[in-house]
Automatic annotation (TrEMBL):
One of its GO terms (cellular component) is cytoplasmic side of plasma membrane. PANTHER family: TNF RECEPTOR ASSOCIATED FACTOR, TNF RECEPTOR-ASSOCIATED FACTOR 5. GO terms for molecular function: thioesterase binding; tumor necrosis factor receptor binding. This is MATH domain-containing protein. GO terms for biological process: regulation of canonical NF-kappaB signal transduction. It comes from Cynoglossus semilaevis. Residues 13-162 form the MATH domain. InterPro entries: MATH/TRAF_dom, TRAF-like, TRAF1-6_MATH_dom.
Length: 170
């Protein structure tokens, strides 16, 4: 990994939620030239589910060229046979306000239990289909120059939170 691409991970666990926080430094040369996406390493929560987060800095799908796109992928893991499927926990994705005003931009989704994206991942696969937001945040809000609150010094803070309520018994 290049030292210019900063990725720091911090996990927080409380009785009702698990948060994965990371810092992604926006540098054009670190964006995949094919899909324009950035894929962060998989993270496992305390109950065994494994997630991978996909970021498209120049958008994906409906948001291509106009929005930041954020997605979550459920990955196969060693404890999948012990977990509850389909995955039903609420997922919240946020970009953090760096101005100090705490006007974070957040969107959440509750999984559709009928969607194959939330079924137990095939152990031979690289993960289920990505689910999230193709139009998470307009690029013009990220590129607001001196008035930018989400990107400062080429750094965007992204937070993912998975609500763990109901899984305390695992």
């Amino acid at each position: 990994m290049s030292p210019d691409l900063t990725q720091s991970w911090e996990s927080e666990l409380t009785s009702i939620q698990h948060s994965l926080k990371f810092v992604l430094k926006l540098k054009e040369e670190f964006v995949c030239p094919v899909c324009r996406g950035v894929v962060l390493n998989a993270q496992q929560n305390s109950c065994g589910h494994i997630y991978c987060f996909h970021f498209y800095l120049n958008g994906d799908g409906e948001g291509r060229g106009t929005h930041l796109s954020l997605y979550v992928v459920l990955m196969p893991g060693d404890f999948d046979e012990l977990l509850l499927w389909p995955f039903r926990q609420t997922v919240s994705l946020s970009i953090l306000d760096q101005s100090g005003a705490r006007n974070h931009h957040s969107l959440s989704f509750r999984p559709d239990p009928a969607s194959r994206s939330f079924f137990r991942p095939d152990p031979k696969s690289v993960g289920n289909l990505a689910v999230g937001f193709s139009c998470f945040c307009p690029l013009n809000q990220l590129e607001a120059g001196k008035n930018a609150i989400y990107v400062r010094d080429d750094t965007l803070f992204v937070k993912a939170k998975v609500d763990m309520s109901g899984l305390e018994h695992l």
